[in-house]
Amino acid sequence: MEVAPSGRRSAALDRPLAVRVTRDADRVPGTVLYEALDADGAPVPGPRAVVIARMHGNEPLGDPVLARLAERAEERLVAGSLLTIRANEVGAALGLRHTAEGSDLNRFFDPATLARLRALDPATASYEELRARELVPLLLAADAILDLHSTSRPAAPFLVVRDDQAHRSLARDLGVERLVTGVHENGVLSGGMAVNIGLHPGEKGGRIGLLFEAGQHTDPANGDRAWEVCERFLSGVGVWRSERPPSRVRSETYEVTERFVQAGAGTEQYRFILDPADGGGGRRGLPPRQLHSFEELQADEVILRRGKSEVARASAW
């Protein structure tokens, strides 16, 4: 564990005099804790915010955001603390979503899975399971969490939020056009995301938790967009001094109401129609087309395919 106080700064009322930097916070690798200190070296009261990158190892877009936070924390952190987490470091080194023996790290944080992880024999656990156990205490101590994600294909950016006043109020100030609710409330995912740690589906909690899908990792504009969202988030929860003007983006809200159950393990999986060669199209004789998130579908249009002939179609309503 490495602890390094920063140099002293001007005594402006809106800024602390120093920022203490602790690498491998609580001896957890891949984390950095930044704490705002006053003139006497005491912590400046405020919330603890967490920013997560590389929850999925093959999504690199969050790494530059963590680097920018490290560069600017001494100047911009004004209260409380900021913890940055590079979550799936082994997956990142391999360029894979998760390790070969593991599974999705961002499905381990619901109460039932947390109980299973606590009782797990470390000798039989995957890297992701052990990593989740390391991260749990840090996430439970947070007042606000932002988890940064990206995609391998072009995709519209969106923000996953819980459907309550506190989340909506903050989310509308982050400059993101599309807000997605219902993921937590309707139990759409088979497991809990880190931003909803410890909560049952639909359960309310005092912690703010937002997941930002920034778009395709190879598009430099998406990295800048993720940085803007991160700065607005940290400013909105009260730990960061930002000079950005208020966002003028008017957000639209989309609610997830149902899910499609994937084929069982050990069998061929369903895949979205992400390429015209996959044969999209429906009863109205639509030509094959590539599908994207937030796209309006025709009733009965093919949206999923498994093998050469098995398909799933959009609902008629």
Notes on the protein architecture:
This protein has a ten-stranded mixed sheet with strand order 1-2-3-5-4-6-9-7-8-10. It has six helices and 13 strands. By secondary structure, the chain is α/β, with parallel strands linked by helices. The longest helix is centred in the last third of the chain and has 18 residues, at 220-237. Helix 5 links the parallel strand 7 (158-160) and strand 8 (178-181). The chain has two domains: 2-255, Aminopeptidase; 261-317, no CATH class. The protein starts with a strand and ends with a strand. It has helices at residues 62-76, 89-94, 111-118, 127-140, 165-171, 220-237, and strands spanning 2-5, 18-23, 31-37, 48-53, 81-86, 144-151, 158-160, 178-181, 208-216, 252-255, 271-272, 302-306, 310-313. Helix 1 (62-76) packs across helix 6.
Q: Might you state the CATH topology name of the largest domain? A: Aminopeptidase
Instruction: Catalogue the unreliable spans.
Output: 1-13
What characteristic shape results from the CA principal axes? globular
- Determine and state the CATH class of the largest domain: Alpha Beta
Helical amount among residues, as a percent range? 10-25%
CATH superfamily of the largest domain: Zn peptidases
Total helical elements: 6
SSE series: EEEEHEHHHEEHEEHEEEE
Strand order of the largest sheet: 1-2-3-5-4-6-9-7-8-10
Q: What is the name of the CATH architecture of the largest domain? A: 3-Layer(aba) Sandwich
Q: How many structurally independent domains?
A: 2
For the secondary structure, the number of strands is 13
The major beta sheet can be summarized as: 10 strands, mixed
